Amino acid sequence: MGEISCSTEPINGVLSRSSSSPPPSGYRKSCWYEEEIEENLRWCFALNSILHTGSTQYQEIALFDTKPFGKALVIDGKLQSAEVDEFVYHECLVHPPLLNHPNPKAVFIMGGGEGSTAREILKHTTVDKVVMCDIDEEVVEFCKEYLVVNTEAFNDPRLDVIINDARAELEKRKEEKFDVIVGDLADPIEGGPCYKLYTKSFYESTVKPRLSQGGIFVTQAGPAGIFSHAEVYTCIYNTLRQVFKYSPLEISCEEMDLRIKQRVEGENKYLDGTTFSSVSTLNKVVRNSLFNETHVYTEGAARFIYGHGKNEL
Amino acid sequence: MGEISCSTEPINGVLSRSSSSPPPSGYRKSCWYEEEIEENLRWCFALNSILHTGSTQYQEIALFDTKPFGKALVIDGKLQSAEVDEFVYHECLVHPPLLNHPNPKAVFIMGGGEGSTAREILKHTTVDKVVMCDIDEEVVEFCKEYLVVNTEAFNDPRLDVIINDARAELEKRKEEKFDVIVGDLADPIEGGPCYKLYTKSFYESTVKPRLSQGGIFVTQAGPAGIFSHAEVYTCIYNTLRQVFKYSPLEISCEEMDLRIKQRVEGENKYLDGTTFSSVSTLNKVVRNSLFNETHVYTEGAARFIYGHGKNEL
Amino acid sequence: MGEISCSTEPINGVLSRSSSSPPPSGYRKSCWYEEEIEENLRWCFALNSILHTGSTQYQEIALFDTKPFGKALVIDGKLQSAEVDEFVYHECLVHPPLLNHPNPKAVFIMGGGEGSTAREILKHTTVDKVVMCDIDEEVVEFCKEYLVVNTEAFNDPRLDVIINDARAELEKRKEEKFDVIVGDLADPIEGGPCYKLYTKSFYESTVKPRLSQGGIFVTQAGPAGIFSHAEVYTCIYNTLRQVFKYSPLEISCEEMDLRIKQRVEGENKYLDGTTFSSVSTLNKVVRNSLFNETHVYTEGAARFIYGHGKNEL
Amino acid sequence: MGEISCSTEPINGVLSRSSSSPPPSGYRKSCWYEEEIEENLRWCFALNSILHTGSTQYQEIALFDTKPFGKALVIDGKLQSAEVDEFVYHECLVHPPLLNHPNPKAVFIMGGGEGSTAREILKHTTVDKVVMCDIDEEVVEFCKEYLVVNTEAFNDPRLDVIINDARAELEKRKEEKFDVIVGDLADPIEGGPCYKLYTKSFYESTVKPRLSQGGIFVTQAGPAGIFSHAEVYTCIYNTLRQVFKYSPLEISCEEMDLRIKQRVEGENKYLDGTTFSSVSTLNKVVRNSLFNETHVYTEGAARFIYGHGKNEL
User: Fold this and answer.
1) What Å distances lie between residue A188 and A77, A89, A233, CA to CA?
2) Is C84:D87 a contact under the CB 8 Å cutoff?
3) What is d(CA B289, CA D82) in angstroms, rounded to the nearest whole number?
4) DSSP-based three-state secondary structure for C92
5) Calpha distance D154→D148 (Å, rounded)
């Protein structure tokens, strides 16, 4: 059957398509995934096939083969990551903290079930241990199965994949320390499993004690667009500031490029020193919002992006 | 089908969904099939999965598992048939001609690859031979595989499935006669494979000679709605009238009910004598259009419904 | 209202479009109205303009100029009536009861704010008084303004337009009797204003006492499709049967055609005797459902079609 | 125009909505504008009303009142600018070239009919003459009417609005020189009016000769996203490089902030020195593409973004 049907196996000889037939069109652009970004805004992308859908204890999950973006992971109705451009997010999440650390050896990933964060971390030759702790076994399993770009990472002996709540896991590992802890979680939505991992108490009682001397914590913190940064981004930033010492970026553009060359296997597609100087310099609107933010994220005073989790009341 | 959600069986322990979990929602209602009925009119139905898509020599084909209609067959972007209500179309296509014939034994189906027309015909105890001739082997194969409601029919020894152009097949069978010939073709669209099977010359030179004495020809003839009947329906009717003797319905409501009881196995869901008297009595708008139609369908003067076939120039 | 309604006048000379310019396309087919028919089924039609939108005490209302259907009235998110085919519904609602009555003079319309039901009634030369009682003044006003096909009816001196709840109005008119009472209401939806006008107590205590000797009550009763008839149609039918004597259609096809000729001005587009014999003969599925229905519609045991009214809790 | 545009005035007393009524919902989120970004990707935003639609000699144009973005200008089916965030684009287009010039007095805008580019330029106290030359009078007129944020700019005596093709206008003004010329054109699409204003010959023969000594030319150059930059952006950049001397940004972050304070009235919302250093530092992907681009934009070798202009063959 090959490329466009849902099966990974030919059903039988009769159905196999001649390789010389023209690319089909018609109905193919008529299957769509529609995501409600906000109540009054949607986007829709055409599908080749539905690779997997499921409802786990925690989340609604799906893996689509989309026409514009390749394979795309959707959790609780929100696009998390897509094959064609996931490198942008994952390079930016992983390399800056690891490169700012003098010699990162042990890394802990909160979430990250897709495997791409682990893949980027494992490119660092200094790293000898990565613990990836995701709550949802089904996500991990089908990403392992379908996302061939991460196969090598999933098979790397330095990687330890744990199915558990990141908080419980970090609390259990009382004697361990990590040089870098990476929060690769879904955005906080009502009814979803992640919002408790953006709170001050979690950062203070659970994350910080697990960092080694000079250790670095980094987390994705939701959308940071010209308006969307007001949803959760500024509030998470302000919460981090209460707990962690602010770490000015101590290395220059040139030093970052040098360390990439020395420590990272292969070539980054997106991130280098110059890219980092651009993406880490915020515009006036967002800078003002960060400056004015006073809200601290707690379980009782959480904020959410637009969406609906499985366990929403 | 394999390990994706298209299977009706649990695939393996890791991925199988607990039977106690609530029905998933969220993303699941966010996969849609969208059909452009006209340039300014669409309808969209939610998908559970894409069971099959393909591009054959003749057509773009797809089988979806839809949320509102069950399994649905789409050819060249147009919904042909859906599990929940296909009985309406197929009972109305098949039973009236067979019941109006005194003793139908041999039946020829032009098209009908889905298998439902054969299923209805094979319910007639008088019938001892059904030839179903569809041009598209892939359609026949996946309908045989997925449409369990037609499995028994596909396995009936009275049924002979032929993959061929219906015109070529009828012309080849020079010595054979059929008591009923049924046209179960897709609507004529530009670039599609069917429009030549709605022409006067086809009816005259190919169909009529294959009917036995007292034989009946019936064909689906496109949409017959308050406006849509003007697309192809009246013109096909007028073309038939040039070639075939008009056969007034010779049997009463009661006689139809009696013959159903005597000759048809099982119980019809939709069609009985009363239903037939209603659906065969046309409204004033359509009657006027039929009365005023002068166009005869020929290859050089074809008409089409809205849509785009694979081989459209 | 101001900002979102539309003027019927050119705003100024500069903006007027040359009459020789080609019909615009592009963006114009990109404005759509989308109606959720059920949770998993939608249809979408392209808009030329939004003529009026508003939120009254009772309902959300809108009048669109649509590309496929001309002007279309939408109440509580559901398409009620469209310019191109409203004659089908209104002819079928009005003429059968009036033609079955020997000499209808006084007619009461519950609802009907659009004006089309009044228009059809006023074609009957026997009629000398029509009371149209709609709860929503805004609907009546913009239909009067925009639906030019009903202008003559709205100006007919035999028509009395009342803004009131139909129940309250009928109860107030204690001494009056009507030869025909027509229910031209929106389908019952949760939170909408109409569902109380489909109940047994309303029919019994309010409607029946206002019918003159030999008077006829007719009501629209929701969708009657192969599946949708189970939503409210069978239940309303069963409720009517508890209250009103069943009136077999006493006149033949030919007699109906004769009375149309004698009593109805102009020519019906859709309804004649033959059409009526077809549309009033139900198919086996619906007949079975009517036969088996036991539910009686009361305020405490109401049924609804899919949708959301303004005052839904 | 008449019937399909919208008045800003209440039509009459009857229709005006009580100010105490709740904001309408229901149908209101059911009117959508749908833009096809690529063949397999769309986005849709909910509409309050269609303020204006038209088809001019050059373009299909529309002004919508959208729910998520306020008023939005759409040309040839593509969203050009929206009330809530147009300041980002316009501040970034205008202020960098004017601030890099020591004393900009005369400015020419190619396109810019919306008025926002003029508004930003007119904030510069050094400027004493702005010529805005747009080909489409209808766009200019309805923007003047509806975009109140630009009213003051349209009335500024320093502004001269010309309806003409920018090329023709620049060629006509043989004796004039401009300190800054701003290209505020729609993206080049097939069949649209703008693509000839992105060519080498236009830059060389028409634009460059009209720049005064030390004059600066700036142009919008299409989307610059991680993939979309390959459509036209790199090619326009490479074309500019053939014609204009590369002007390194000679002023520092601090100097830019100082000049903003000295020369620009009011406060920028988005652009300051820090923002500029970020947005003008490109990521690795885009830098590599710019470095490798060899195509030069000419009329015979044009490139286009996805879309369809009115005069597409």
Assistant:
1) 13, 17, 10
2) no
3) 49
4) helix
5) 10
| Mean pLDDT within A254-266 | 98
DSSP alpha helix (H) spans, chain C? 86-100, 116-122, 137-146, 151-154, 166-172, 200-202, 233-243, 253-263, 273-279, 284-292
Asked if A278 and D274 come within 8 Å (Cβ–Cβ), the reply is: no
Distance from CA of D306 to the nearest CA of A (A): 13
User: What local confidence, expressed as pLDDT, does residue B273 receive?
Assistant: 97
Give CA–CA dist D229/D225, Å, rounded.
Answer: 5
The region of weakest confidence among A247-261, C221-235, D196-210 is: A247-261
Say if strands A106-111 and A178-184 run parallel, antiparallel, or are unpaired: parallel
CB contact under 8 A, B283 and C285: no
Cα–Cα distance for residue pair D148/D119, rounded to 1 Å: 11
Task: List the one residue out of D69, D97, D45 whose CA is nearest residue D247.
Answer: D97
Residues 6+ apart with CB under 8 A from A209: none
B residues 213..252 contacting C (CB < 8 A): 226-227
Strand order in the sheet with A178-184: A159-163, A129-134, A106-111, A178-184, A211-219
Neighbours of B181 (CB within 10 A): 27
CA B212 to chain centroid, in Å, comes to 23
* Cα B78 to Cα B33: distance, rounded to the nearest angstrom: 11
A26·B60 Cβ contact <8 A: yes
CB-based contact, D190 to chain C, within 8 Å = no
Q: CB-based contact (8 Å) between A4 and chain D?
A: no
Residue numbers of D annotated as active site: 184
Nearest CA among C299, C292, C300 for reference residue C230? C292
Shortest CB distance from D278 goes to which of A269, A270, A282?
A282
Q: Is residue A150 classed as helix, strand or coil in its secondary structure?
A: helix
Buried (b) or exposed (e) across D238-264, using 16+ Cβ within 10 A? Answer: bbbeebbeeeeeebeeeebbebbeebb
Q: Is C48 on the interface with D (CB under 8 A)?
A: yes
Residue C169 has pLDDT above 60, yes or no: yes
d(CA A170, CA A153): 22
Nearest to B33 by CA among B60, B1, B2, B3: B60
CA dihedral (B165, B166, B172, B173) in degrees, to 10, reads 150
ipTM of the complex: 0.88
Contact A183, A110 (CB under 8 A): yes
**Which of D15, D27, D80, D144 would best serve as a mutation to test chain C binding (most C beta carbons within 10 A)?**
D27
**Residue C63: pLDDT over 80:** yes
**Sequence letter at residue A259:** R
Q: Which domains does chain D have, with CATH numbers?
A: 2-8+18-82 (2.30.140.10), 86-292 (3.40.50.150)
Query: B308: Cβ–Cβ under 8 A, 6 or more apart, which residues?
Result: A26, B76, B77, B189, B190, B191
- As a whole number of angstroms, the distance between CA D76 and CA D309 comes to 6
Q: Is A269 at the interface with chain D, CB within 8 A?
A: yes
Q: What's the length of chain A?
A: 313
Of D44, D227, D268, the CB nearest to A44: D44
CA–CA separation, B167 and B188 (whole Å): 15
The pLDDT-based confidence of D307 (bands split at 50, 70, 90) is confident
**Integer Cα distance of C236 and A137 in angstroms:** 51
Residue for token digits 């939004």?
C50
Tokens of D27: 């149908």
Band of pLDDT at residue D313, cut at 50, 70 and 90: low
Mean pLDDT of chain A: 89
Q: Give tens-digit pLDDT for D11-68.
A: 222 222 233 333 334 444 689 999 999 999 999 999 999 999 989 888 899 999 999 9
Paired residues of B55 in beta bridges: B60
Please check the confidence at residue A104 and state whether its pLDDT lies above 70: yes
